[in-house]
Amino acid sequence: MIDFLKSVSIALVPATATFIAAKIAAKSMVSAEESKTARLIFDNVYSEIFTLLEHHLYQTTTLLETREFGSKINSILEANPGYYYPSLKVYCERMVHSNNADFQEHFDVFCETFNKQYDLCCKKIGIPLRSAAFRLNRKHYKGNFGFWSTYFSLPGAWAQPILFIAFLVFFYYIDKMK
After folding, report:
1. Is the pTM of this model over 0.85?
2. What is each CA distance from 48 to 69, 72, 99, 154, in whole angstroms?
3. Rounded to an integer, what distance in angstroms lies between the CA atom of residue 80 and that of residue 74?
4. What CA–CA distances, in Å, run from 166 to 107, 135, 155, 170, 178?
5. Gap between the terminal Cα atoms of the chain
6. Among 58, 152, 59, which residue's Cα sits nearest to residue 113?
7. Largest CA distance in the chain
8. Can you tell me the distance from the alpha carbon of 45 to that of 73, in angstroms, rounded to the nearest whole number?
9. Alpha-carbon span 66 to 78, nearest angstrom
10. What is the per-residue pLDDT across 133-145, written as a single tens digit (0 to 9) for each?
11. What's the rounded Cα separation, in Å, for the pair 152 and 107?
12. Is the Cα torsion angle 143, 52, 67, 111 positive or negative in sign?
């Protein structure tokens, strides 16, 4: 039995090491190519769209503004075919063709999609992501849930409510002791 385990371990150790080395090499080669592609996407499309929308992400817009943003973004996308994720084009076209009933919804959906894809692209090329404080100051979140999830991603944000609750409990028991 012991001889069998030795023979199996002798065969498995080099095979496992080779497998791990191959995975690491493949990941580094793919990562380099993804990084180059992400850099092209960022330089050609996303940086221009972010500059256009930075002060308007997740904000309330009018029908005219939504259509203007849609047409400007559409012209950026058409000038750089293939340098964006196809879903952006779909949401952009919805903004251009929106009506009174759904223009804000189309703008919000575009903002959510662009926000996620912009951050993903920045991660791939090593550009620092917008901090939670920046997002809160610029209101780059949607609704109450977006606010609180962004707020609690700040360093030390959990300490404030915990301390507040601890003080409430402390003063409650101090008051009961009287």
Report:
1. no
2. 12, 10, 25, 28
3. 10
4. 42, 29, 19, 6, 19
5. 74
6. 58
7. 79
8. 9
9. 18
10. 777 767 777 777 7
11. 26
12. negative
